[in-house]
Specification:
By secondary structure, the chain is of the alpha/beta class. Helix content is 51%, strand content 14%. A six-stranded parallel beta sheet has the order 2-1-3-4-5-6, sandwiched between helices. Helix 7 packs across helix 9.
């Protein structure tokens, strides 16, 4: 029995409405691609994926509520038939490594042309992988993050100047343990304070 093939069904998730709208309009010009759902946040993207069951989810890296890598992880676990790709204006080596670990098949900058984006979607849908060459080279030269998962978590929670007591509550840790993690992260990153540590870790995509 021959399988009936149709257009590749796509979910677009980006909190920047102009960019999402532009991508949707440009992809609509491709006969073999069909945008079936759009989302403006991480939780909405996951909900739309589960509701519409697209073939490919095109996810922004940084979205309210849940970043693209976390959405991709949830889609992988709950909707294994859907392939995921990240399109971002904030690509860092650490982001790429997290994305690949989450099963993301494509990672590209938002500067790609409409034709390139369409080709990447087709590549990902076919089960192949696309990674922006420049970003891949940066990831190789940057090396792996020296931070443990807990150190990265505590550092990320401290990014907006939250007091140790609040970080401890949100991470379900004691205040002393939080201070130890922050101190260890600062030492590993060669930072004089946690604010500098956060900046350095973000520049490398480690948080």
């Amino acid at each position: 029995m021959t399988a009936v093939s149709g257009p590749v069904r796509i979910l677009l998730a980006d909190d920047e409405h102009l960019i999402r709208g532009a991508f949707a309009a440009l992809l609509a010009l491709e006969d073999d691609l069909l945008v079936v759902a759009e989302a403006a946040s991480g939780p909405e993207a996951l909900a739309m994926a589960l509701a519409h069951r697209p073939d490919v989810a095109v996810l922004d890296l940084q979205m309210p509520g849940m970043d693209g890598v976390k959405v991709a992880t949830s889609i992988r676990d709950q909707l294994p038939g859907c392939r995921t790709m990240i399109v971002t204006s904030h690509g860092r080596p650490g982001h790429l490594k997290r994305a690949l670990a989450a099963g993301v098949r494509g990672f590209a900058p938002k500067t790609v042309s409409a034709r390139q984006l369409a080709e990447i979607i087709r590549t990902v849908h076919a089960g192949n992988r696309f990674v922006d060459p420049e970003l891949a080279a940066d990831a190789i030269s940057a090396g792996d993050s020296p931070l443990t998962a807990r150190e990265a978590e505590v550092l990320e929670l401290s990014a907006y100047g939250a007091p140790v007591s609040e970080i401890a509550e949100r991470a379900s840790l004691s205040q002393g343990t939080v201070r130890n993690y922050l101190s260890s992260a600062m030492t590993k990153l060669g930072a004089e304070n946690r604010h500098t540590a956060v900046r350095l870790a973000r520049e490398r995509g480690w948080v």
